[in-house]
Amino acid sequence: MGGRVILAALLGGLALFLWGWVAHMALPLGTMGLSNLPTGEAQVAEALRSHVTTAGVYVVPGFDPARKWDGAYQESIASQRKAGPYALMVVVPKDALSMDSSQLVNEAGTSITLALIAAFLILVAGGLSSLWARLLFCVLLACFGLLQTDVRFWNWYQFPGTFTLAQVIDKVAGGVILGLVIHLVYRRR
């Protein structure tokens, strides 16, 4: 059975990787909820270039974690956020990658690892012999990841609903595809 787990991981990972390409390149899921600045992008980019020298995730207005229990400080941050603007951004000051081959290799490795985890858990769960059981299992794994990250980002960091919806569609469809591939591999005798 170990050989089937590896085969399911490789084929399932390939299927997830290909689904990712379709979802982000052929369908609009990769850009749903993302927006360009309507004006002033050059000025914002220049301000970031001038003031941010280290890659990271930045929040505006900023906050001091050492003061998170200070009520007056928290009220000040809340009023700044309410007055706006509020921003959560990934900033890479220079040499940002854009569809680099290393990113594709990382994505393929991530997809194979996800498929390996799902294939192994199905095996540990007694094989879940029916197609529907395997599909449901993989969709529930995808939903676990959604709730663990994407829905929390929507809630706490105010990610747009359309962005979160795109993640739901992407991950649930990926779970269905992965469950189908694992079923096809495991059912072969």
The CA-CA distance between the termini, in Å, is 10 Å
**Shape summary:** elongated
The helix tally amounts to: 6
What is the N-to-C succession of helices and strands? HHEHEHHH
Provide the structure class.
Answer: mainly alpha
Structure description:
The chain has 6 helices and 2 strands, in the order ααβαβααα. With about 190 residues, it is mostly helical. It has a domain of about 120 residues. It has a two-stranded antiparallel ribbon with strand order 1-2. α1 packs across α4, α1 runs antiparallel to α6 and α5 packs antiparallel against α6. The longest helix is centred in the last third of the chain and has 27 residues. The radius of gyration is 21 Å and the shape is elongated. The termini are close together.
Set down the secondary structure blueprint.
Elements: H1 2-26, H2 41-51, E1 56-60, H3 71-83, E2 87-91, H4 101-124, H5 131-157, H6 161-187
Antiparallel strand pairs: 1-2
Helix pairs in contact: 1-4, 1-6, 5-6
Give a short summary of the structure:
With 189 residues, this protein is mostly helical. It has a domain at 2-34 and 97-187. It is built from six helices and two strands.
